[in-house]
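Record type: monomer structure entry
Structure origin: computed from sequence
Chain ID: A
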Amino acid sequence: MHHTFAEAIGLIADAFARLDPEMGAFARMAAERGWIDIGPGAGRSSGAYCTKFARPAEPRVFVNFSGTPASVLTLAHELGHAWHNWLVRDLPLCQRAYPMTLAESASIMGETLVREALLARCDGDDERLAILWQASRSAVTFLLNIPVRFEFECALVAGRRRGSLDAAELDRLMTSSWQRWYQGTTRGADTRLWASKGHFANPALGFYNYPYLFGYLFSLGLLARREQWGASFVPRYRTLLRDSGVMSVETLARRHLDVSLDGPGFWRQSLGEVVRLVAEMARLCPAFGDPKQESINRQWQESSSLG
């Protein structure tokens, strides 16, 4: 399954417009104005990034677009960031800075909208299963892989308070975290993940991956309210994003969602969306280890949006 850049923009814009027509129009405008640098080219590293400028108050997206389904979702992720930046462009500069937790909520919202649109246009169960398989890989990344990193980093910080840690000790901490979260369900866990991820060694990027887990669950909790809120969902979502630089996440949730993030209720509702995903996969592919999964795994590469 391969998409040209024009096809990807059309798909993303249509998916965004299902929620908010202006959001869809923004995705097309970003492409038409050349705000998306798609590469790939000589000397470019892999990955994707969105940034913004004070003057002009416009976002820019960098992405190595390859046309795979995963790269389409990565592009949607970055355009979710760009839409967030666009919504706050008229605010005072000090109010355009928001925490990474809310930044990742907006970007993962973009991914999720595109995945929903793909599911809506599926021709059969095999195609539907392929999309759900990729969604389940993302869920594993957010709900298991990121906690592995978080727990390792907690142990790393605690260990550094006592002194230096050698490679063997870092390997032990990494292995312990893998085992705790995956409970023997994964083979060949990367015990040297601590060495390949630079943010573990950069004090300015402490606990860098945690906001992705927050954003994943927060965006799912938001989307779960679409039916309840009806026509008011879009203006409420826009207002929430515009307020993301002027109040704490907890205050934002109380004011715009009427929920407390301190208790388990909101997060259980978000995880309920994941349970529904797993149940749908089980319906389509009840036999664990079905041969279909190998071909699906080749078609759908894990999204590269997580560093």
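Annotation 1: The chain is about 60% helix and 5% strand.
Annotation 2: The mean pLDDT is 88.
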